Amino acid sequence: MIEVELRGWGPGDVSAVLAAFSSPDMARQAARPIDTPEAALEWMAYWGFRDDARAFAVTVNGEVVGNVAVSNIDSHDTGWVSYWTSPHARGRGVAAAATIKLAEWAFRERGLFRLELGHRLNNPASCAVAVRAGFAPEGVERAKLKYGDERFDVERHARLATD
Predict the structure, then answer these.
(1) What confidence score (pLDDT) does residue 1 get?
(2) Do the Cβ atoms of 104 and 159 come closer than 8 Å?
(3) How far apart are CA 100 and CA 106, in angstroms?
(4) Sign of torsion, CA 64 48 119 6?
(5) How many domains does the chain have?
(6) Do 159 and 135 meet the contact criterion of CB atoms below 8 Å apart?
(7) What's 155's domain CATH number?
(8) What's the pLDDT score for residue 117?
(9) Which residues belong to any copy of the N-acetyltransferase domain (predicted)?
């Protein structure tokens, strides 16, 4: 598997965030446009000042190529995992390697027991990442996500600290 490192986001990462969210598939998943340096800094700050979440820049050989995060950490020691990679880094195992590292961190450092994630059924690449990172499929949630006027079914996966 490819070697990735996780680190916090910082002001020097603005160009990497802007490049990632300039991709149409990434842009439509953002809550609001991330198309200016200010918007990129706001996105990073959002992840940097929360008690119920932690995001990491994913780097390969020092280059930022993606993001992994655990959010919505609740009183049941459960968190929601998300990930993305820049278009030029896809298909190399970056997201799976980063998600494995995130899970190890979440279980060890945050004391979480259960990690969940979901992917659109029409996104087999995201499903492959989840499975390679040790997340077992648990079922389909109908029409869970909405992007624009379109709704998408989502397959939920989970990984336990005891897996």
Answers:
(1) 77
(2) no
(3) 10
(4) positive
(5) 1
(6) yes
(7) 3.40.630.30
(8) 98
(9) 4-159
3-state secondary structure the chain: CCCCEEECCCHHHHHHHHHHHCCHHHHCCCCCCCCCHHHHHHHHHHHHCCCCCEEEEEEECCEEEEEEEEECCCCCCEEEEEEEECHHHCCCCHHHHHHHHHHHHHHHCCCCCEEEEEEECCCHHHHHHHHHCCCEEEEEEEEEEEECCEEEEEEEEEEECCC
Chain position carrying tokens 């990984």: 159
Q: Which residues of the chain have pLDDT under 50?
A: none
pLDDT of residue 72: 94
Burial letters 68-94, b for 16+ CB under 10 A, else e? bbbeebeeeebbbbbbbbbeebbeebb
> What pTM did the predictor assign?
0.93
- For residues 25 and 71, the answer to whether their CB atoms sit within 8 Å is no
Residue whose tokens read 């949630």: 141
Please identify which residue in the block is written with the tokens 């992840």: 47
User: Mind listing the pLDDT tens digit for each residue in 74-110?
Assistant: 999 999 999 999 999 999 999 999 999 999 999 999 9
The pLDDT assigned to 26 comes to 87
